[in-house]
Design a protein that fits this description.
This protein is of the alpha/beta class. It is built from 7 helices and 9 strands. It starts with a strand and ends with a strand.
Length: 202
């Protein structure tokens, strides 16, 4: 039963260097009606201890017994999600304060849109900001560019929950290289969604 607006899903694995800032950026959002599902995928560093230092009832931590991989952890998060919308987050990213508010408002006002994402600003390992992406923002342009690349930044998206559950989430047969900039599990999902729902960026 849905009883919250957003379920944020963040898989983490040995993310001790960045995870504190990632979590803070979510807890400090202007939109506050969410549950923050964190799947600790068998981390062997201080990741779990850092998570446990946060005293916020919106955080729901689930631990895999060992490293199961991104797709398994994402689908596990979807199973636990109770929100009307599901938002993605990565443990080495930072969400700007109005991210959730803007995305929720957009989806509420545009019922034909199934997925909304954003462009992003790159940050290097030392926290120095770099260039901003300039990816297309309308459905037709995104659909065309999917023939050549992945024009949707995975950890920036918010998706209607019923869509992910209707399409059975991420394909468990997809194996990705952990260091790839754009991994195949999200590309596969966008291709499957493309003919069913509209996708856009704000």
């Amino acid at each position: 039963m849905t009883n919250t607006t957003i379920s944020i899903i963040m898989p983490v694995f040995n993310a001790e260097k960045y995870i504190h800032e990632a979590i803070e950026s979510i807890l400090n959002q202007t939109f506050t009606d969410f549950e923050f599902i964190i799947i600790n995928d068998g981390s062997s560093d201080e990741t779990q201890n850092i998570i446990l230092r946060f005293n916020d009832p919106r955080i729901k931590l689930y631990n895999n017994d060992f490293n199961m991989g991104l797709v398994y952890s994402l689908n596990k998060g979807i199973q636990y999600a109770r929100g009307k919308y599901i938002a993605r987050m990565d443990a080495d990213d930072i969400s700007l304060p109005h991210r959730l508010e803007i995305q929720v408002n957009y989806l509420n006002l545009n019922q034909s849109i199934g997925v909304v994402g954003s462009n992003c600003i790159y940050i290097n390992k030392d926290g120095v900001k770099g260039d901003k992406t300039n990816l297309p923002i309308d459905h037709q342009s995104i659909a065309w560019l999917l023939f050549f690349s992945v024009p949707i930044i995975h950890p920036s998206v918010m998706i209607r929950s019923e869509i992910l559950k209707f399409t059975n989430g991420y394909d468990s047969l997809i194996v990705t290289a952990s260091r790839e900039r754009y991994s195949a599990e999200d590309y596969n999902l966008w291709i499957r969604l493309l003919g069913l729902y509209h996708v856009c960026k704000y």
